[in-house]
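Q: Hi! New to this. If I give you a protein sequence and the SMILES for zinc ion, can you show me the bound structure?
A: Yes, paste them in.
Q: Okay, here:
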Amino acid sequence: MIAESSLLARAANLKPEREKRVVFLTARVHPGESPASFVCQGIIDFLVSQHPAARVLRDHLVFKIVPMLNPDGVYLGNYRCSLMGFDLNRHWQDPSPWAHPTLHAVKQLIVHMNQDPKVSLEFYIDVHAHSTMMNGFMYGNVFEEEERVQRQAVFPRLLCNNAPDFSFSSTSFNRDVVKAGTGRRFLGGLLDDTSYCYTLEVSFYSYLAAGSSAPVPYTEDTYMKLGRNVARTFLDYYRLNNLIDDNKPTNHSNSSLEGQSYRQGNSHGNGRNQELEKSERRIQGSKGDY
Ligand SMILES: [Zn+2]
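A: Thanks. Here is the predicted structure of the protein with zinc ion bound:
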């Protein structure tokens, strides 16, 4: 077993600094999975905000986001398929420009970026919603090399520290034949071994926080909060926290909100992330959690 700190260092520093580091996110390939859109909204709102952590993320990483991979299916109210009746998440291997146009275009973009020597495509995360499982969790790929397996587990472990609704124990790694045409599986084979591809699932209905046996129903706000926690986990992954210009003590007037937010948003968090929560609330002002 390799120590987590050294794994993190190796995972985050395998590529030269000069390369443009890209995180590619997609959502809503399955049109009925509307929670995925709220998670994606949380990611986008945070990344474009004036939050100091968001600025650091924008300075160091490029986020490419396709919030809706299946817009015609969403428009029609389909649960899983596109206008032409395809489950797009089974056609990544050979998408057709006329039958799967959005998928074809996104795949072309990813393949093109992957061939650009100035670009380092390091993460692909496809956001879904799950109809039977609780919590947020991830699916990843299976590799022969043990060190790569452990490096792949780093991001979900860090996310588990930041998000009380994210479950590392429900996170799993598989190579099922039936999943071969998914984005996560296909791109896992396409990108090199220092890139990570995940499906991020979030429950349609509720989550269990660590140490609790009472399910908490998800709301639009808590889905968006998971999205923010996904975004800020890249700070931990790339060890950018010390670059955030926000260590001044604060006298926030609404102490009950602070306490509540620590419990809800940071039950396993550390002091550094509590500082992030504080600064986030200070920027939000009277609006509270955004
Ligand atoms: Zn799905």
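A: The radius of gyration is 19 Å. Let me know if you'd like me to explain how to read the tokens.
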